Amino acid sequence: MQSKVSPAVSAVTTNPAEAAFFGGLAADWWDPKGSSAMLHRINPLRLSYIRDAAVLRWSLDPRARAALAGKRALDVGCGAGLVTEPLARMGASVTGIDAAPENIAVAALHAGALGVEYRCISVEALAAEGARFDLITCLEVVEHVADRAAFLAALRALLSDDGLLVMSTPNRTPLSYATLIVGAEQVLRSIPRGAHDWSKFVQPGELASELALAGFETIDTSGMTWRPGTGFVLGRDASVNYFMTALPV
User: Fold this and answer.
1) Any bridge partners for residue 107, and if so which?
2) Sorting pLDDT into bands at 50, 70 and 90, what band is 8?
3) Strands 159-170 and 216-227
4) Contact 119/92 with Cβ under 8 angstroms?
5) Residue 165's domain is classified under what CATH number?
6) Is residue 34 part of a domain?
7) Per-residue pLDDT tens for 91-131?
């Protein structure tokens, strides 16, 4: 089954400048040495965290190759599909959405016959259609949206009552500025320059409070750090970047 693509829809939570910036990176999104090299490096940790959270939430078989079989998953801000495709390979029925039509086109082409549905649509427009999902992933996205409260409210509307939300985002700390803005963007160029606005980074306590107002209960916060000789690992240190899981209430 070929991946499906639907047309763009405007939205109050979408930042057009952000969409245009990341859409301009679409051509080499799947190049592990290209502009998305950092995403390729952290992707194994992302997928492990998502899988473990899903296994715990629904008491799934952690050894099953298609552990997410029977689950509907939504990857918000999917880019070219670095997380979307693995979710499909885990057995989920997956929809990937992104604000940049260029990303959606590249994602659909790369997915081929995997069967992922890709849509250039906003979360609130998708929620207005009455769509519901068991698992929603939203990785490195919330710091780019125009209206965070409206965005989180739409995620709640999209999540089933026994669903699971998995997010990741940079923390707003002096260390994250030094690491991501100065180090990664300006010096090492391992992240495209201009990819982040540090003032829009959100601290874990802030995000947990905003999720509560939107109808979620945060159940886990785990930091992501880089360890020499090991690479990226999960831990208590959330000073640069962190994962968060939440359940609907």
Assistant:
1) none
2) very low
3) unpaired
4) no
5) 3.40.50.150
6) yes
7) 999 999 999 999 999 999 999 999 999 999 999 999 999 99
